[in-house]
Structure formats: structure tokens, C-alpha cells
Amino acid sequence: MKFRSLLIVAVALVAWTNVPAKSASGVPTYIASAVTDSARPPDDKAQDAKRKPDEVLAFAGIKPGDKVVDLMPGSGYYSRIFGKIVGTTGTVYALQPTEMDKAAPKGLQSLKTFAGTPAYPNVTVLVQSAAAIAIPEQVDMVWTSQNYHDLHDPFMGSPDMARFNRSIFDALKPGGIFLVLDHAAAEGSGLSRTDDLHRIDPAAVKAEITAAGFEFVGESKVLRNAEDKHSLSIYDPSIKGKTDKFIYKFRKPLS
Questions:
Q1: Where in this chain does the record put each Methyltransferase type domain (predicted)?
Q2: Residue 175: which residues within 8 A CB-CB, separation 6 or more?
Q3: What number of other Cβ atoms are within 10 A of residue 98's Cβ?
Q4: What is the pLDDT of residues 217-247, one digit of tens each?
Q5: Which contacts (CB < 8 Å, 24+ apart) does range 32-36 have?
Q6: At the topology level of CATH, where does 25-251 sit?
């Protein structure tokens, strides 16, 4: 009986030591440290109050050692944070579609200023057509922030979304996560506002991605804004930076 009690204590102690340390806000310390890292540009840090990267990433579940794809990374706001979280045993692929590079070349230019440098040696830039995504290895997470709607726009070549999402599915390890953060369009609007308002109906995203074989895990509402009426472009001065954003988490089944 005494041995059994000692065994229970030992198991409990091991379990406790495997729980990630958390900051005062309840966010894992490796996420909090990456967000407050001194290497991040002031312009990026100035966006943190609205973008809430610590809470968003805690929901996503990214952790040290992960292999992550930052799909359509813009100037690298999240790529830099990912690089610090996954550390020396992890990898970040900042994947910029060639179509988006033609439309917004400054993003790729920004990525190339830090990817592979001593501060971010684990960040690699990939430039590929959205119609033929080919990630070098299976990864733990594919992440896309505020850009999934662009895949439905003419300037991106309107790729076959069933094929596109299946390529993401194939790139993930079993149990891997596909995280989509985007500007919400009005309920029932489907794909009709991706070009003019740069928004997408969350239900349309869920339908497309689950059709590729993903399981819907859940949603974070940390960036939702009930005051956004979904009627204005995300670039309208009255709503820019304050749009209603959904964060959906999908998982590739283990088998």
C-alpha cells in the first residue's frame, strides 16, 4: 500500500513537471518571452495591443520544437514570433505565394531581411505558387493570418481550394493543426465579399477546410468585435485594425 502511494506521488510529480510554465497572464512563458523579445521591430510591437499575439498563440498551441508554416506571412509579424517560440530544435517556413509577391512585394522584401540571420536562423523563406504548394517536410502547424480570404480573389489566380486545402492536409503530421485567422464577413455571405471588403464568412471557411478531411477543433473569440457590422472594407479608417476576426482551429486526424 505504501509503495502504491509513493508511485502515485511520483506519477503526479512527473505530470506536474511537464506542465508549461506560465506568465502572470496565464500564457506559457515561451510565448510571452517571444512576444516581448527585444529583436522584434518597434512597428510590430506597436500592433500587439490590437492583435493580442500572446493569447492567440496560446490558443493555437504552438510550442518549442515545432515545425511551423507561416502561410502568406506578410512582412513577418508572426514569423519572427514563431522563430523565437520553436527555438533551435524547431523550424519556421515563411511561405509567400508568388501571386501575392507580385501584388505586395514589400512583404517578401521584409522577410528576407531577417530570415536566416543569427537572430532568426530557424526561419526559411519559401516562394511558391498558391496552386502548387509543396512544403519540404511534414509539419506540426500551418498558420495563416488575415489572408485566407485572398485565396478567393482574382489576383491570386483563384486556386482550386479543394486541392489547396488538401495540400495543407498532406503537409501536416497526423494530429497537426491548421489555424485560420481572418476578417469576418456577414453571416450567410459566403465568398461574396472577399474581393471588395476583404472579408470571408467563417462558415464558408469551415466548410472548405473540413471538406478536405480536417476536424474542426474549436474557435477563439479573443479578436471578435460585436460592434463591427461587417459592411465596410477592412481598410476603411473607421474600422481598420478593429475588424471582427475569427480564429478557427482544425486538426488532421491521427488516423
A1: 72-180
A2: 251, 252, 253, 254
A3: 15
A4: 999 999 999 999 999 999 999 999 999 999 9
A5: 33/84, 34/81, 34/82, 34/84, 34/85, 35/81
A6: Rossmann fold (3.40.50)
Confidence of residue 23 (pLDDT cuts 50, 70, 90): low
- What residue segments make up the domains of the chain, in order of their start? 25-251
Give me 54's grid cell.
500572446
Phi, psi of 67 (to 5 degrees): -105, 120
Beta strands 91-97 and 67-71 are parallel
Rounded Cα gap, residues 212 and 163, in angstroms: 8
Cβ atoms 180, 250 nearer than 8 A:
yes
User: What's the rounded Cα separation, in Å, for the pair 144 and 246?
Assistant: 12
* 105 residue type, one letter: P
Q: What whole-number distance in Å separates Cα of residue 51 and Cα of residue 53?
A: 6
Q: Name the CA radius of gyration of the chain, rounded.
A: 19
**pTM for the predicted model, two decimal places:** 0.89
3-state SS, residue 201: coil
Query: What confidence score (pLDDT) does residue 225 get?
Result: 97
Summarize pLDDT for 72-85 with one digit per residue, the tens: 999 999 999 999 99
Give the DSSP H or E segment for 251.
Answer: strand 245-251
- In a 13 Å sphere around the CA of 57, the CA atoms on its Cβ side amount to 30
